[in-house]
Amino acid sequence: MTAICLIRHGETDWNAAGRLQGETDIPLNNTGVRQAEECAASLRPADYDVLITSPLKRAKRTAEIINNKLDLPFVEMGNFKERAFGDAEGMTMKERLTAYPDKNFPNRETMDAFTQRVMAGIDTITKNYPDQSVLLVAHGAVINLILTIVSNGKIGADTTKLLNACISNIHYQENQWNVKNYNLVDHLT
C-alpha cells in the first residue's frame, strides 16, 4: 500500500494577513518556522521513505525543517506548486470580493490545468514509490484539491479550511486512493 502524508506549509506573513498567495513566493514567518519544527517533532523517520515538496519557499523551507530531523531522500516536484491566482494574488478576501465579486480572477490558472498538474504529480508518486510512505509538503489549494478528488467531494475545496502545518493522510489500496484523516493539528501549540 502506498501512503501519502500531506503537510500544509507553515504560516507566512500573507497567511496571517489573510492575503491570497498563489504562486507568489512568500517565505515562512517565525510562527511558520515553529509550526514546521512541531511537525518534525511529531513524525518518526522510520515511518517514511521519501519527502517530496513544492519548490515554493514556504513549502520547501517547511520540508527542509522537517527533514533536518527525518533525513529522508528529498525531492522537489513542480506539480505541487500552489495554484496561480493571477491578479488576485496579494489581495485580502475583502479586496478580492470588491474587485472580483464573481471570483473570476484574471490570469489565474484554470481549474482543469491545476487539476491535471496536481493529479499528474499524484500519479508520479503512485508509479515511482509503490508500497512506500511519502511525506508531501504542499499548499492549501493543492491539498484541498487532492482531498476533494480522493473523497469524491465530501472533504476538501469549499468544505474544508486547512490550517497551516496541518497533516492529512491518504492511502492507495485496491487501485484507489482513500482519505484516512485530514486537517490534524494536535501536534501544534
Number of strands: 6
Task: Report the structural category.
Answer: alpha/beta
- Topology order in helix (H) and strand (E) letters: EHHEHEHHEHEE
Q: What is the makeup of the main sheet? A: 6 strands, mixed
Q: Which consecutive residue ranges, at least 5 long each, have pLDDT under 50?
A: none
> Given the structure, what is the number of helices?
6
Give the N-terminus to C-terminus distance in angstroms. Answer: 32 Å
What does the radius of gyration come to? 16 Å
Strand content: 15-25%
Shape: globular
Helix content estimate? 25-40%
Strand order of the largest sheet: 3-2-4-1-5-6
**Averaging pLDDT over every residue, what do you get?**
97
Topology (SSEs and partners):
Blueprint: E1 2-8, H1 13-17, H2 30-42, E2 50-53, H3 57-70, E3 74-76, H4 93-99, H5 111-128, E4 133-138, H6 140-150, E5 167-173, E6 176-184
Parallel strand pairs: 1-4, 2-3, 2-4
Antiparallel strand pairs: 1-5, 5-6
Helix pairs in contact: 2-3
Write structural notes for this entry.
The protein is an alpha/beta fold and 189 residues long. The protein has helices at 13-17, 30-42, 57-70, 93-99, 111-128, 140-150, and strands spanning 2-8, 50-53, 74-76, 133-138, 167-173, 176-184. A 6-stranded mixed β-sheet has the order 3-2-4-1-5-6. Strand 2, helix 3 and strand 3 form a beta-alpha-beta unit. Helix 2 packs parallel to helix 3 (57-70).
